[in-house]
Q: What sequence folds into this?
């Protein structure tokens, strides 16, 4: 039997090959056939998840919620010290100095990344802004969102902090961070589906010792992850409860 | 604490729902909500604090050791009407999510406003506690809440 792995589309583009290396490494470690399928779109990927296509998912926190509570997945590990944070940025030349300077009609450049969009909108609430009094435009990537800020087609842009930090120095020099989230406890995780549940101990052992050998370390490096940390069900439930308070 | 704070400090007796009382030193000073942060705490089903994140510790002015094991009403500000918390407990008691604006009392007597969401934590169909996550409220919502709570409080004092 071949199992299927997918990865939340919000990883940095330079880590695509890293995920292929990871898949190869995992197949060797577990002595199992695993197929990696990548997506550009969160929505298309979510449909495939709901259709039961996948057994292993490196999921953003928002999808993790659905996977655990509705589809019976279990989180087994998270990347060490990598919390998901959101940055709201403006054009460096703009007059906005604080969130409270923003006014109704504010033009927002966002993506279909559900966590970043949710946290971004929450950080605008203190200016009494919501989806009813702002003009939200969804872009295909953070780079396209950044360009719309630079062209003055948007007043603010929402970015995953890790993606913002990887924009080119030239683009970043023309942008300014208005506010950044400091939540700390919301992060991606690797989840295992019901068909593969029997393999969880083997998967966890493989992941948690990955940095102990040269080959594993090289793969982690190429994914931009220092090591994996274990996640138990209470840690997962806590994160999901927290996300639950953020969505209406 | 500044000299000015000490001058403006007033002592107020706070009565809790369970009949206990404490005297709190109040200072009419608002501590601004920190941008980008979420203030998170968890309680057991009775409202005893079991977890507080760093933002909670920083904003409340209490140490983690003082908070864990304390009742959540440790933060209750006398300007908050009982009706607001009645609505909170009724809502979560029915298994639903509660949203509201809350004025909280810090250990130093100053206050901070939050937009709070409280949800029941269900594990294997059993209620194991509650989680509250607070975020930064808008000035307009704070002003609306102040007006509403004054009205409610006045009605409660008469009753
Ligand atoms: C998860 C949770 C979080 C709470 N957070 C607060 C809070 O931040 N401030 C507060 O005054 N009461 C909070 N409460 C409500 C208190 O438990 C309590 O009902 C309230 O302070 C009023 O006190 P009393 O019921 O003893 O009169 C919270 C309750 C729960 C379950």
A:
């Amino acid at each position: 039997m071949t199992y299927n792995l997918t990865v939340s589309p919000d990883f940095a583009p330079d880590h695509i090959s890293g995920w292929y290396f990871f898949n190869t490494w995992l197949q060797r470690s577990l002595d199992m056939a695993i197929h990696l399928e990548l997506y550009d779109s969160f929505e298309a990927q979510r449909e495939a998840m709901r259709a039961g296509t996948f057994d292993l998912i490196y999921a953003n926190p928002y999808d993790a919620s659905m996977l655990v509570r509705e589809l019976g997945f279990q989180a087994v590990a998270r990347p060490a010290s990598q919390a998901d944070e959101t940055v709201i940025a403006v054009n460096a030349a703009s007059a906005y100095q604080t969130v409270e300077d923003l006014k109704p009609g504010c033009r927002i450049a966002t993506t279909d990344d559900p966590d970043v969009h949710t946290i971004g909108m929450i950080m605008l609430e203190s200016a009494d802004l919501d989806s009813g009094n702002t003009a939200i435009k969804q872009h295909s990537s953070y780079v396209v969102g950044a360009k719309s800020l630079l062209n003055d087609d948007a007043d603010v842009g929402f970015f995953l902090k890790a993606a913002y930090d990887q924009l080119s120095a030239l683009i970043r020099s023309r942008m300014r961070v208005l506010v950044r989230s400091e939540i700390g406890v919301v992060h991606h995780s690797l989840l295992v589906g019901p068909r593969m549940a029997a393999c969880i101990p083997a998967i966890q052992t493989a992941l948690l010792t990955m940095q102990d050998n040269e080959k594993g370390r090289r793969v982690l490096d190429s994914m931009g992850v220092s090591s994996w940390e274990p996640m138990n069900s209470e840690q997962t439930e806590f994160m999901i409860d927290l996300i639950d308070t953020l969505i209406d | 604490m500044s000299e000015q704070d000490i001058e403006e400090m007033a002592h107020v007796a706070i009565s809790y729902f369970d009949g206990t009382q404490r005297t709190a030193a109040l200072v009419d000073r608002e501590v601004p909500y920190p941008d980008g942060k979420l203030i998170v705490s968890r309680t057991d089903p009775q409202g005893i604090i079991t977890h507080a994140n760093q933002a909670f510790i920083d904003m409340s002015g209490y140490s983690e050791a003082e908070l864990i094991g304390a009742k959540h009403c440790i933060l209750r500000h006398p300007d908050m009407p009982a009706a607001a918390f009645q609505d909170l407990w009724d809502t979560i008691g029915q298994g639903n999510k509660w949203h509201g604006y809350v004025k909280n009392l810090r250990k130093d007597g100053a206050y901070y406003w939050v937009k709070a969401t409280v949800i029941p934590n269900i594990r294997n169909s059993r209620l194991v506690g509650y989680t509250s996550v607070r975020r930064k409220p808008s000035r307009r919502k704070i002003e609306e809440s102040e007006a509403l709570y004054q009205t409610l409080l006045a009605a409660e004092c008469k009753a």
The pocket of flavin mononucleotide is lined by residues B 16-18, 41, 43, 47, 72-73, 75-76, 80, 82, 85, 88, 102, 104, 118, 130, 132 (CB under 6 Å).
